[in-house]
Amino acid sequence: MEPTIPEFFRDKHVLITGGTGFMGKVLIEKLVRSCGSVAKIYLLVRQKKDKNAADRIKELTEQPVFERVLREQPGAFERIVVPVNGDVTQEKLGLSAEDEDLLIKNVSIIFHVAASVRFDDPIPDAVRMNTRGTREVINLAKKMPNLKALLHVSTTYCNCMRMEVEEKVYPMQVDWREAIDVAEKVDRATLNILSEKYLGKFPNTYTFTKNLAEQIMLEHKDELPVIVFRPSIVISTLKEPIPGWIDNFNGPTGLLVGVGKGVIRTTMADKSAVPDYMPVDVSVKAMIVAAWLTGVRKDKEKGILPVYNSSSRYLSISTRELNDMGMEALMKYPFPKVLWYPSCVTTKNHTCFYVNHILQHLIPALLLDNLLKLTNRQPLLVKLYRRYYLAMMALCYFTTKSWTFYNNKFLALCDEIHSTDREDFDFNFQNVAPKTFFENIIQGGYIYLLKNDLSLLPEARINIRRMYLLDRVVKGICTGVFLWYLCSKSSLHMFQNVLYRILSVLVPLSF
């Protein structure tokens, strides 16, 4: 009989790259809390100028995501989690000979989560991190005599040229070896000039290099127990270890927080498009299940590359519905301090977005920044809106389209879980209302990003009603002034001419 998931991880040594990232933190917490008999979890951590690997691991324990495991299992984190100095962007992962030997002798499960998710990374940087880094993990894994599973975290959008994506690795025109060679040898200035041509149909270096990394996995499926796991847009936790936890402003979280604060007033997206979101804890549970399944059936399924699209395909809703749910959630959990009453105009037309951006973002920002200068305070809104515009231009490729990510294999993982493991590892989310996802996002942004206390909600609700009245009054005054201007003597002749021209076109059409 196959071992349960905790039994499989018992006395095993696990290596995690990207453990200090959003998904990596949730993965570490879940393994320590639900697979407490695991021997060691080695975290590959890059040493910073003022902090070594041990210091950075200590910082992890101070985050809310680890409060539950530290409370329920005191001492487990310190006993299990071991920092290892390294760098995914370096050859041999930047490991010392001693650390490399330690990992080779002991590790039997690898979760390769590390990646640069920036869309605007230059090709050399993105290739070194996402493609060459994967090659280095593979090279290390080849030396491990006890390897049971190597799970590589990719993205459903690495095949974004295809509107329908199945759970398989698609062929790539660019060879991953060639891409690494180009990144290492061609000078940056030349690559920057040729980057658009080199990327081909890929919209950015992130999707391009993640696709290349999948090719590496595919090539090594016969000699290593590799897995490709593709989350879609990862959002805050659904349930574990705490609902709504998040540590970054990426994806819909940043947008909803920006709208909730009254800062973002317009965005570029197709209202009928269906984005695909996935709570991080759902994906993490599935990753652990996938590694377990490959580990216990390694000999039976040798030469097969399991690919899982971690997609919420059956629960996904349109951007229009998302906007409505988001606004409803913002009214339920309004932020204490807002710049203006939350409202957002969504358009898929670039010209309309650009005009809205000038009228609703840049002009008010210039006025407010000048007021800040007069009061000897640092101006910030113009710079903020410039960054927002550039980010929106990078994201609009994804916000104006819909994809279908087939996830039958991903959902089938649930059926493989033993009855005794279901309480801890069943990730079935199909009965969860989409509204819950977005209420979690707002709560997460409220508590964990903006550091607000829920006790401030009553006051915030009173404040948001005041802002609503102020918004109505100001818009009413502006409308009145505009109509008065149109009807003033100086403008009356022009208004009459415009009206005459409109009627001269419409009246003949009515006969």
- Beta-strand content estimate: 5-15%
Strand order of the largest sheet: 3-2-1-4-5-7-11
Low-confidence stretches: none
General form: globular
Q: Please give the radius of gyration in angstroms.
A: 26 Å
How many distinct helices? 20
Largest sheet: 7 strands, parallel
Indicate the percent of residues in helices. 40-55%
Mean pLDDT: 88
Distance between the termini: 83 Å
Q: Helices and strands: which structural class?
A: alpha/beta
Q: Count all strands and give the number.
A: 13
Provide a brief overview of the structure.
The chain has 511 residues and is α/β, with parallel strands linked by helices.
Characterization of the model:
It is built from 20 helices and 13 strands. The chain has 511 residues and is of the alpha/beta class. The strands form four sheets. A seven-stranded parallel beta sheet has the order 3-2-1-4-5-7-11, with helices on both faces. The chain has a two-stranded parallel sheet with strand order 6-13. A two-stranded parallel sheet has the order 8-10. Strand 1, helix 2 and strand 2 form a beta-alpha-beta unit. The longest helix has 31 residues, at 457-487. The model has no long low-confidence stretch (mean pLDDT 88).
